[in-house]
Fold each of these.
Amino acid sequence: MNKIQDENLTNRGRGRPKGSPNRTTASAKEAIAQAAEMLGGADRLVEWAKEEPANERAFWSNIYPKLLPLQVGGEDGGPIQAVIRWQQESL
C-alpha cells in the first residue's frame, strides 16, 4: 500500500470534521444571499413587510426566528427559571 491508501484507511468512516461547513449548504446560502441583494436587500425586505399586515406577521413568525439561537439558556448558561405569580381578584 502507498502512503495515500494508508492515510485513507485511518480516516475511513470519520466523515466531515465537526464544525466544518457543508459545501452544499454554504453554496446554497451564498446563492440565496446574492439573490436577496439583487432583489433589493434589506430595504426591499422592510418595504415588503410594511406592504401588508400578513407580510409583517410572516417576517416575525417565519423569517426572523431563523436568526435566533437554537438553544436558549438561563443566566450564566444555567437553566431557565420561570416565575409565575397569581393575583387574586377582588370581588
Amino acid sequence: MSFNCMVKTTLVAGLLSTSLDVNVVQAQERNTGPMGDKPNVVLMLADNLGFGDLSVYNGGTRGGIRTPNIDKLASEGMRFTQFLVEPGCTPSRAGLMTGQYSIRSGLSLIIPPGAGGGLQPDDVTLGKTFKSVGYNTTYIGKWHLGPGPQSQPQNQGFDQWLMGFKGSTDGVLYAASMRTAEAPEALQRALEVQLVEARSPGGAAQPIRLYDRKYRQQIEADIAGAAASYIEEQARTDDPFFLMVGWTRPHFPNDPHEDFVGSSGAGKYGDSVVELDARTGRVLDAIDAAGIRDNTIVIWLSDNGATVRSTATDEIHQGDNGPFRGELGDAYEGSIRTAGMIRWPGRIEGSVSNGMISVHDFLPTLAGFIGARIPDDRPIDGVDQGDWLLGNQGHSNREHLLSFVGDRLVAVRWRQFRIYPIEFLNSNTNPSIGGYLGSTRELAAFPRVFNIEADPKEMVDVLVSEGNAWLMAPYMQLIAAYKATLVDHPNPPGGNMTRY
C-alpha cells in the first residue's frame, strides 16, 4: 500500500480522535472563565527536574530528598503522571509560551552562549494572552528564550521581568574555565552572566548584578522573595494577575544555599531539590497570606527530565527520571516525561491522572479559563484540556505528541506507543555521556516501537514481534498531518550546532 493511500485511510482518520481545529474553536468560544471573576494564575517552572526527584512521585524511595510543600500542592489538585514536554530547556519553554511545537519558532534546540534567535514580535505568548484580557503580568527568573530585547519577557506580554538572566545556570561555571584557558578578556566580559531586570515593557532588560558561582547559592531565595512580594502587592489591587516563576533548580551546578547544605543526605543535587521545595513553599504561603487562595490557579511543572550523565562531574546519576530511560536532550521517555500538577480550589478536584497532557496545552487551556482568544492565523499544537481538568469529562483531549531536536523529527508518541525514526546513543567517553551531549544513529528501514505502559524502560521493540506493524498507519498519518501545516506555515531554520 502506498504512503498516500495509508494516510488517507478512513480507519486511521477515525483512530486519531483529537482535532487541533476543534480545540481551537472550543477555546475561542469560551467568552468567560469558569468563575464569575477571572482567576489569578501562578505558574512555577522547575529547571531539569526528573520524574523521580519529588517524594510525591517516588514514594519516598530517595530517603532525605523530601518535598513536603510540593507534595501537599499535588494532593490539593490534579497531579499528572503523563505530563510530556520537549527535549530541552529552550524547546519546552517555547512550547509552553506559544502553544506550538518549538520547531515552529526555530527554537527546537537549546540556545547556547553567544547564539542569537529567540521569540519574535509576532509570536503570541502566554504573557500576551493574559494581557489581552486585562491581567497584570510579571515574569521572575530564568527565561532562556532568546537574548535580544525583542525576545525578552517585557516585550513578550509581561509588564516586567525581575531577577532574570538570558541563558542557563551553567554559565556561572564559565568564568573560572575561561580564566584557566586564558580566553581573550573581551570574550570573558561578553560571556559573563548578568542578572537583569526590566521594570516596564519596551527596550532591553538592564544588568543589576553578576550571576556568579557565589550568587548561585542565593538566587533561589531571591526569586522566591520577589515572587512573594509581588503576590502581596498585587493582592491589594482589583486586577487579576498572571505570575510566572522560572526557578533555576535543580539545573547544575547545584550549589545550595547554606541553610540546605547536607539537608538531603543525598549530595548537592538532593540538597538543591529540598531547597526548591522550600522556595516553592514560600510562594504558596504568600498566596495563602494574601487571602487569594480560592481564586488562584497554581501550576507547578518541570521543563524537562533530569540530566543524568551530561551534567557536572560531581552530580552524575543524581538526577532521577523514575522508571524511564533517557535524559534531557534525547527524545526517550525520561527526557520528555516529568513532574506536573495544577490546583484550583473548588474547581479542580484532588486526583492523580495518567491522562496525556503536554506543555503545549497550557496556552489554549488557560485561554479558555480566562476568556481569551488564541490565534487562528497559525497552527496551534496545544489542545484545550479545560473540560478534563474541571471534571466535565473523564479523559484527556490529547493522544499524541511529536518530538523534535533541531530540524529533525525524532519521536512520535501515539497513545501508549513510542515510535522512533532514529536511535539515541551514549558516548564512548569516560565518563560516558548522553542526552544533549550524546549522538544519534540512523535505522535501516523501519522505526523502533515500544509499548511504554508494558515496557517503561523501552527495551523490547514490538513493531514486528507482537504484530504491531499496523502502527505504521497512524504514525505516518500523524507525520503527514504535521507536514501539511508547513505548506502555509513553513518553519524557520531549526537550531544546529553540529552540521555546517
Amino acid sequence: MLVEILNEQGKEMSPKCKELALMAGGSHYPRVGGDTLEQFMRLTVEECIKILQKREVRNSNSARLILKEHFELEKSQ
C-alpha cells in the first residue's frame, strides 16, 4: 500500500495527502498502480487547481510554494 511504501522510505504522508488517498481508495489507502492510483492522481490535480484558483499566483515559483504549503510538503525537506 502507498502509505506502507512511504513509511519504508522513511517518509510520512501529510494529512491532506492521506485524505486524498482515502478518497481514491475507499476505506483503505490505495495500492500503487491501476485505477486507484489514477483516481488518486486525478484528485490531487483537482485539488491543486482548486487551491490555485483561490490564490493570487504570480508565477510558477509562487504556485509551487502555495502547493507545498497546502500539502504540508515543506516539513519533509
